[in-house]
TrEMBL record:
SUPFAM superfamilies reported for this sequence: GroES-like, NAD(P)-binding Rossmann-fold domains
Name under which the protein is recorded: alcohol dehydrogenase
UniProt cross-references to Gene3D superfamilies, sorted A to Z: Medium-chain alcohol dehydrogenases, catalytic domain (3.90.180.10), NAD(P)-binding Rossmann-like Domain (3.40.50.720)
Keywords annotated in UniProt: Metal-binding, NAD, Oxidoreductase, Zinc
Pfam families reported in the protein's UniProt record: ADH_N, ADH_zinc_N
Cofactor (UniProt): Zn(2+)
Keyword Zinc: yes
Species this protein is from: Hyphopichia burtonii NRRL Y-1933
Enoyl reductase (ER) domain location: 45-373
Classification via InterPro entries: ADH-like_C (IPR013149), ADH-like_N (IPR013154), ADH_Zn_CS (IPR002328), ER (IPR020843), GroES-like_sf (IPR011032), NAD(P)-bd_dom_sf (IPR036291)
Length: 377
């Protein structure tokens, strides 16, 4: 069929060409089913229903990706609970760390082919024409479309993604391993850039035993920094050390975090990457960061704020900066670190249908590393 369309294309008037191109793409993807498995919720905090839903059709600018694996990020839990001051789409298919294979695409897509490996990221798409997009700050775009939040995400077997923003994953990559890089990896890599520190300097990772933190330790190492990992419990401590943290501080066993952190690092870490979901931990980091250092806020506890005393901020000349995922260049670079073998995802495998149990474990802070779900189970 494809060959016969291709043969006849050369004899057609020019206007028909796009139609036939889209037909070639359509026929290439003939094995796509009409229905698929997904986890859907209809109200924030309501039942997470594992059920059959129609396979979405890609719009003109979109890829259709057969998601093989998806990481489960704490953001997915926030989206389900609806605890941020930003409404989710409802009903919603969550998920934004989806790694899979391109099986279809709209007629305006350029530079992708069927069979390419592609990733569904948090930033599904943006306007690409505002001041923020123009300067590579697409995640700050007013029209940012967010996977698993305003756009059905990767907790389904087939997901759509804007072809400009979809992550390019090199052929032959282990799709389960790369999944957490698509949000957690990109986010912590960008946060470490935001910290603006030099090789050899101390960086504290607060929340180091979780999904973002376990990757942050490794990116910090690969970038030449000295990571101090902070989290709670022995299991997370063992993971942090195995991933290369020079020191582990257990916040559940430390009375005075500010004093301890200053002692360990000889005056405070040069930067702190806050990936915990704890307001108290974020507040402490403003107090123990080294003079002239940077506190990077990444974790998003609901309704939280941190106080930076004007006198201390001025006299210590510290910076408190927010960091929000990363742009296309950050994504490509974060994936390159992974492809070079510098980053290993500490993953636990589960089936998509097990998502409610995973959220319960996440809520209790019990997950060591990252869960990755197989969308076919
Ligand atoms: P996670 O649940 O896997 O990890 C959080 C970790 O913080 C856990 O290991 C927990 O034990 C630890 N923790 C809890 N209290 C702590 C304390 N007082 N001190 C130190 N550690 C503590 O979550 P995750 O998937 O890594 O996500 C973390 C946060 O980052 C979430 O709020 C998520 O929404 C947010 N996030 C932000 C961005 C962004 O672009 N800014 C991107 C992705 C995720
Ligand atoms: Zn995420």
């Amino acid at each position: 069929m494809i060959t016969s369309i291709r043969r006849s294309v050369s004899r057609l008037p020019r206007g028909s060409l796009n139609y036939y191109r889209s037909q070639i793409k359509f026929y290439s993807a003939a094995a796509i089913p009409e229905f698929q498995k997904a986890v859907v919720f209809e109200t924030n905090g309501g039942p997470l229903i594992y059920k059959d839903i129609p396979v979405p059709k890609p719009r003109a600018n979109e890829l259709l990706i057969n998601v093989k694996y998806s990481g489960v990020c704490h953001t997915d839990l926030h989206a389900w609970k609806g605890d941020w001051p930003l409404a989710t789409k409802l009903p919603l298919v969550g998920g934004h760390e989806g790694a899979g294979i391109v099986v279809g695409m709209g007629e305006n897509v350029k530079g992708w082919k069927i069979g390419d490996y592609a990733g569904v990221k948090w930033l599904n798409g943006s306007c690409m024409s505002c001041e923020f997009c123009e300067e590579g700050n697409e995640s700050n775009c007013d029209h940012a479309d967010l996977s698993g939040y305003t756009h059905d995400g990767s907790f389904q077997e087939y997901a759509t993604a804007d072809s400009v923003q979809a992550a390019r994953i090199p052929p032959g990559t282990d799709l389960a391993q790369v999944a957490p890089i698509l949000c957690a990896g990109i986010t912590v890599y960008k946060a470490l850039k935001t910290a603006n520190i030099r090789a050899g300097q101390w960086v504290a990772i607060s929340g180091a035993g979780g999904g973002l933190g376990s990757l942050a330790i490794q990116y910090a190492k690969a970038m030449g920094f000295k990571p101090v990992a902070i989290d709670g419990g022995d299991a997370k401590g063992e993971l942090c050390k195995s991933l290369g943290a020079d020191i582990y501080v257990d916040f559940t066993k430390t009375d005075d975090m500010v004093k301890t952190m200053k002692e360990i690092t000889g005056g405070g870490p040069h930067a702190v990457i806050n990936v915990s979901v704890s307001t108290a931990a974020m507040q402490q980091s403003v107090d123990y960061v080294r003079p002239t250092g940077t506190v990077v806020l990444v974790g998003l506890p609901a309704h939280a704020s941190v106080e930076s005393k004007v006198f201390d901020s001025v006299v210590k000349s510290i910076k408190v900066a927010g960091s929000y995922v990363g742009n296309r260049a950050d994504s490509r670079e974060a994936i390159e670190f992974f492809s070079r073998g510098l980053i290993k995802s500490p993953i636990k495998m589960a089936g998509l249908s097990e998502l409610p149990r995973i959220y319960e474990e996440m809520e209790r802070g019990e997950i060591v590393g990252r869960y990755v779900v197989d969308t076919s189970k």
